[in-house]
Amino acid sequence: MNNPNSAAPEANKQRSEKDRVLIFDTTLRDGEQCPGASMTFEEKIEVAELLDDMGVDIIEAGFPIASEGDFHSVAEIAKRSKDSVICGLSRAAFNDIDRCAEAVKHARRPRIHTFLSTSPVHMKYKLQKEPQEVFEMVVAQVTRARNHVEDVEWSAEDGTRTEIDFLCKCVEAAIKAGATTINIPDTVGYTTPAEYAQLFRTVRERVPNSDKARFSVHCHDDLGMAVANSIAGVEGGARQIECTINGIGERAGNCSLEEVVMAMRTRGDIYPYWNNIDATMLTRASKLVSAVTSFPVQYNKAIVGRNAFAHESGIHQDGMLKHTQTYEIMRPEDVGVSKTSLVMGKHSGRHAFREKLKELGYELGDNSLHDAFNRFKALADKKKHVYDEDIVALVDDEIAQAHDRIKIVSLSVVAGTQGPQRATLRLDIDGKVVTEEATGNGPVDAIFNAIKTLVPHTAKLMLYQVHAVTEGTDAQAEVSVRLEEGGKEVSARGADADTLVASAKAYINALNKLSQKRQSVNPQTAAG
C-alpha cells in the first residue's frame, strides 16, 4: 500500500497515457443550475480563471442559448482561456448548436457539448418522440456541431435508464457523425457503481467504433453515490469525469471535483489513474465558489470542509501528536490547507494579515486587501479573539459584495420591550446615498421594511437563518437569506459582529443577486 501521506502517490510510478483521466468541470453550467446558486458575469470570469490555472482540462462555461448574459460570459471566458478547453452546452436544436458555436469560437480549444434524451421515459414524456426520430436527431445534431468545431461531445441524457440496444445504436451513430467524446450520464443519480462500470464495458465492447471516442461519466448525487459511480465508470473504461467544485448542482448535486481528484491520488495503489489538477488549489477553489454562490460548505465535507483536517477528541489529538498518519490519510497542505493556526488580533499588522489570507487560500488585490484589512481591524477591536473562521466569513462577505450596486452606508436600530422597533438605514444605490426610517415587529422586520422602501421589490423571503461563526458571546453572526420572485430563487449571506448588520447585509446581497437574475430569461435547461 502507498504511503497515505505522500503528496501524489501516482507521481512515483510510470504514468501511462491510457490511464489519464480528463477533468471536465461544469460548475459554471450544471453547478449554476442549482436553485439560488446563480453567479454574476464578473464572478463567472473569476471562477473560470481559477479553474484554468488549477489545471482543469475542460471548463463547461455555460449554456449560451439560455440568455444574453450566459452567452456573453461564455464568450468572454473563451477569449480569456489559456490552457483549458472551453465548452458550451446545447440542446439538439440547430439554433442552440449555432449559438453555442458562436460563443466558444474565440477559445484556443473550443468544444460543443450537445445532448439528447434516450431513455424510454424521457422520449415518451419529455421529448414526445419515437426512438427512430430521436436516433435521426442524434445524427443531425452531432453533424451540425462537427461542422462548427472539431471537438464535439455528445451526451445520452438519462443514459443509465436507457435500453442498452438503443444506447449502443445512438453511440455508434454519434461517433460516426463526428463526436469525439461520448458521455453516458447518470442524470437522475439512479445507478450503482457495479452497474455503471458494467454499462461502460458493455457499450465499449458492443459499439464497433468505440475506440474512436473518449468516454465520459457525469453523475448526480441523488443516492449519495456520485463520486463512487464516477470512479466506477473510469474502471469501466471512461477517461473523462464531469464534476463540480463542492459538488454543487441540480437537486442533490454532482460528483465533487475535489473528492475524485484526491481519491485517485490518495489510493493510487487501487486506482492507477492520474490527472493534471493542482490539488494545492482545491481549498481556494472551494472557498471562491462558496463565496460567489452563497452556498456554504458543510463542516464535515470531504477534502475541503472546515473539519476535514480538524481533531477535537483527546484520543485523536494524542495520536496526531505522536504521528500524523494515525488519523490523517492526506496531508492538509496537499489540498491547500495549512496545519498551523495563527491567532490574529487587533495588534496584527497588514503583512501578517496578508500571510494569513494566503494560508486560508485567498489572493486579494491591493484595494480588496485594504478594505478587508480595515474590516478585520474593526472586528478585532470588538472581539477578544479573531479565529480563522472569522476571517473566512469576513473575506467571503467582501468578495460577495465586490460588484454590488446596492451597499450599506450605515444602520442604527432601536429595539427593546417597548415597541415598535425602529431602524434607520442609509444605502448607496448606484453611487447615490439614500436614507429611510421604518418600524417593524422586531428589529429585523424593521430593517427589512426600510430596505423594501429604499429598494422596491416583490420578492418573498423564503429563508432567514442565523448562526454563529465561532463560539462565544462575541462571535460573528452569519446570516443566510433566500428570496423568491417570479419563480427565480437566490440565496445570499452576510457576516458581521452585529447580527442586525449581518441581516441587512444578507438581504441586500440577495437583492443584488436578484437584480442580476431579473435580466436573464432562461429556457428549460434540464441537461444530463
Summarize the structure.
The chain has 528 residues and is an alpha/beta fold. The chain has 17 helices and 14 strands. Residues 6-12 and 521-528 have low confidence and may be disordered.
Overview of the molecule:
The chain is of the alpha/beta class. The chain has three domains: 19-292, Aldolase class I (TIM Barrel); 314-400, Recoverin, domain 1 (Orthogonal Bundle); 403-518, Double Stranded RNA Binding Domain. 40% of the residues lie in helices and 18% in strands. The chain contains 17 helices and 14 strands. The strands form three sheets. It has an eight-stranded parallel beta barrel, surrounded by seven helices. Strands 9-10-11 form a three-stranded antiparallel β-sheet. It starts with 21 loop residues before the first strand and ends in a 10-residue tail after the last helix. The model is unreliable at 6-12 and 521-528 (pLDDT under 50).
- Our measurement of the CA-to-CA distance between the termini, rounded to an integer number of angstroms, reads 36 Å
Total individual domains: 3
Helix count from the secondary structure assignment? 17
Secondary structure: helix percent: 25-40%
Bulk shape: globular
List keywords for this structure.
globular, alpha/beta, Double Stranded RNA Binding Domain, 8-stranded parallel β-barrel, 3 domains, single chain, 3-stranded antiparallel β-sheet, 14 strands, TIM Barrel, 528 residues, Recoverin, domain 1
